[in-house]
Specification:
This protein is an alpha/beta fold. The chain is 39% helix and 23% strand.
Length: 276
């Protein structure tokens, strides 16, 4: 009797151990720009793979990459390229990081639906966010102070916008956001503020765009999927998943699905440009 009990207990422990291994949660953390599309990819993947368990959380590109390096994430979502110092930090831990391009995004400058401005040059957009143009009247609009909204500094979109617009492709290396810039925690927060403030301007990932706000053309080019895909739109970028270069099947299978026809359809359905 005791012998049979022990065998049963060992068998139960083995089953629990196998279940624990099959149920390991893949942690996906980082960019708020692609947190929604990543969540939908994860949900679709789990629907097709009943043993898969995936948790997707935001926090910004910097959080995603640092979490990957320190081992609290299996996939780091980012809306900017990984920095040399981040690669060095990974190397110091003996880790090799692999870059996966999930899709392409057009950073969309948005204003209130009642704002008469429809187009800005990228130079004027830069001057607004550097605090050099402060009134809509200077751009042919109402005589009203421009309320400038940016993502916070943990955001990859914040950094990409600074490098490519505010610093004009890094030709103005010391340029920064203007002193009166208001920093917001998410794309959705910027969109809601612009929706409620006639004189606000901000920027969001194109996947967050809807009719509650108005998108601006930049250099007379609209932020459409077609213009991002053809690289006509001047504020286009890649969005990434970063992973450790290992044989982790849970992670690698999820990445393969994200890049598959089904995964890339989700990317397209969420307003981004698929890579395939």
């Amino acid at each position: 009797m005791k012998k049979f009990f022990m065998i049963g207990l060992i068998g139960l422990m083995g089953l629990n151990s196998t279940h624990a291994m099959a149920s390991k949660i893949v942690q996906v953390k980082g960019s708020d720009t692609i947190v929604n599309v990543s969540q939908y990819i994860a949900e679709e993947y789990m629907g097709k793979n009943k043993d898969a368990r995936i948790a997707v959380t935001g926090g910004g590109s910097g959080v995603g990459i640092s979490s990957l390096i320190n081992g609290t994430a299996d996939i780091g979502m980012a809306s900017r390229s990984i920095k040399p110092k981040e690669l060095e930090a990974a190397k110091a831990k003996g880790e090799e990081i692999k870059e996966v391009v999930l899709g392409y995004d057009g950073i969309t400058a948005i204003v209130n639906q009642k704002n008469g401005i429809k187009n800005l040059t990228h130079q004027d957009l830069a001057k607004i966010f550097r605090g050099e143009i402060t009134n809509w009247k200077q751009l042919g609009g109402d005589d009203a102070t421009i309320v400038v909204l940016s993502r916070d500094s943990s955001s990859g979109t914040h950094e990409f916008f600074k490098e490519h617009i505010i610093r004009e492709e890094n030709t103005k290396k010391d340029a920064e956001y203007g002193e009166k810039t208001l920093y917001m925690p998410s794309n959705e927060a910027i969109k809601q503020e612009v929706k409620n403030n006639k004189y606000a301007i901000g920027y969001i990932g194109m996947g967050y765009m809807d009719n509650s706000v108005k998108s601006l053309s930049i250099d007379s080019v609209e932020p459409t999927v077609e213009n991002v895909a053809s690289k006509k739109y001047p504020i286009a970028r890649e969005v990434f998943w970063y992973v450790k270069n290992t044989d982790n099947k849970d992670v690698n299978n999820l990445v393969d699905f994200a890049l598959s026809k089904d995964g890339q359809k989700i990317v397209a359905d969420e307003g981004f440009v698929p890579v395939k």
